[in-house]
Automatic annotation (TrEMBL):
Pfam families named among the record's database cross-references: DEAD_2, Helicase_C_2
InterPro entries attached to this UniProt entry: ATP-dep_Helicase_C, DinG/Rad3-like, DinG_proteobact, Helic_SF1/SF2_ATP-bd_DinG/Rad3, Helicase-like_DEXD_c2, P-loop_NTPase, RAD3-like_helicase_DEAD
Keywords: 4Fe-4S, ATP-binding, DNA-binding, Helicase, Hydrolase, Iron, Iron-sulfur, Isomerase, Metal-binding, Nucleotide-binding
Protein known as: ATP-dependent DNA helicase DinG
Family in the record: Belongs to the helicase family. DinG subfamily. Type 1 sub-subfamily.
PANTHER family, A to Z: ATP-DEPENDENT DNA HELICASE DING (PTHR11472:SF59), DNA REPAIR DEAD HELICASE RAD3/XP-D SUBFAMILY MEMBER (PTHR11472)
Gene3D superfamilies per the UniProt record, alphabetical: P-loop containing nucleotide triphosphate hydrolases (3.40.50.300)
Amino acid sequence: MLSDELKAKIRDSFIALKEDMDGFQVRSSQNKMIAEISKTLAGEYDSNKILCVEAPTGTGKTFAYLLSSIPIAKFSKKTLIVSSANVALQEQLLLKDLPKAQKYCTVDFEYTLAKGRSRYVCIRDLINLAQDNASEELPLNTDLLFDEPPNQYQLRALNHLHDDYAAKKWNGEIDDLTKTPETMLWQKIACNRFTCTVKNCEFYQNCAFFKARKKIAQADVIIANHDLVLADLSTGNTVLPDVADSIFIFDEAHHLNTKALSHFSLSTNTEFIKSSLRQAKGLSEQIAKLTEQDPIEIDIKQIDGYLQDLSSLLKSLSFDENVYLFNQGQIDSGIAKISTQLNTLITHTLNKFIILKKSWEDYLKIKPIDKHIASPLNNALGECEQHLINIVELFLSFLRTDDDAKKSPYSRWIEKNISNKKTSYSLCSAQTDISTNLDTLIWSKAAGCVLTSATLSSLGSFDRLNKQLGLVKTQNQYLRLPSPFSFEQVDFVIAKFKAAPQQVYEHTQEVATQLLQRIDPNQGTLVLFASNKQMQMVADLVENKLGPHLLVQGEFSKKGILEKHINLRQKNQASVIFGLDSFAEGVDLKGDNLTHVIIVKLRFNVPTSPIDKTLADYLESQKRNPFMEISLPDASLKLIQACGRLIRTETDTGKITIFDNRLVTKFYGKQLLNALPNYNIVVE
């Protein structure tokens, strides 16, 4: 419950913010958000301490959740973890919002940024790699460690990294480097939980990762991202504080489902299996030679034979753009039979390999070996163990039986890869429903959760979000806040269009013609496309007329396009941005920088990915409608996001135009329009 003291702390924090912060405006929606977060996290409701709150642009949601949740976290001796979906919001929290919150909050707190282990260098590996490979004769077979050993240029770069770290010019984070090493090279020197020896490492006290983890352990507020939270909680919770001792704020929570679906997807490649087994065999032989014992038996020939049989079966499949999707996730019996044999053999190899690794560790305790030999071997053993575990996990997921009729099945598919005229195959398996995972990892354990975004509901309901994330409506709190902006003066124009979006050629030609008629040469315009192909075709048709004032996504970075656009507007010159999904959210162009948003067509998700197709097929098999359950709610959310680019402050003006006549010709058009803010709807 909220004590009088805690209420006073929260209230006084906002009074300090209101009285001192430049441009602060009192908003009833922000006050409502503060109250609901405080009551939910303090346990005043007879429900879970979970709140889903849709807070439109201008609500002031960041300070609402920071200044209400930080005192509660401190008083309850919990850590507040603020998780975002992208780097931009993380940077804003770290460099702008939290320093201000620290200034106004009536309780003292410390904050830090959490990153994944692989963002930090392993100084031991860096030193060993640079030193070992600088000598002419290596004590180990480098084929076990590299596809190609580092060249002299790479070795010099490694030595520079070491010198800068030793001189404290570099903090050991890849993000702090102006020039980053090649990916394959960084993977060899990055921190890795499979190769880390923790306190047994001679560099433990000077380790960049463990220094960062000490800061995390001491922090009251931790800035993270959805990927890190999911990765850490599903691999033992070794970076972030224990879930039960944490309160989570998921900002941009509408991205959480997509992040989770990706995180719980698995794949392995036939060539990767071959190379991993050969690495395991080679390492076994190296250790056997050093310890004077027999190597573990790995029947490479037998495994190669099964892989060849598997490839022959896969070759006969009918691939659609190099992807073959199994119907409802059910693996063909012949493929399943060979995969079972492979899984049995590789699991047996993994078990023997783990025993070998443990015996090697015990051997080193009794008879230490030169670190220039032991360290790279330890790393290779850890890496190989990780590879074998990943392969076995894929096969277990690939072959499991989906026996829960109430849940959609796993999606399973094959990807054909062709490189240097050589064909290999990737076996893939992914969940289409991650609700149980999220409940097990977070919802059932956390001390409290707030999920927020400017667009969290679909068609005026949280039903879609609940289904995606496994939230139960009756067990949590929900809040939809009104926008602080007035939209009545904003025209939402449904353009008179002859061509329907499904008539791709005709629609594209008409889009180009109408754009040239509707774009004001003295204004800033954002044109949002649903497909890259159509965007490029329209750009080709209009670029002669728009010339240097046309900025097309892909020709420059997103940041570069926005900078060029603002520079043109500062000179009172027209600027037109052509963009895709990434420009439909997270773009903040205020005032005269943007006065016209043009939406080329509604963004209905056609099930193209294997996961989406499997889920759609499952719903149809259950006599359910995937369009009404998935496509329409998602299209509504995306339309609101796209429209939200226009009005960013109370003084912004402009109009929105859409080139999609389905809003007036289809039965669902009224639903989409009713879910929009109260624009002035104009049907031409």
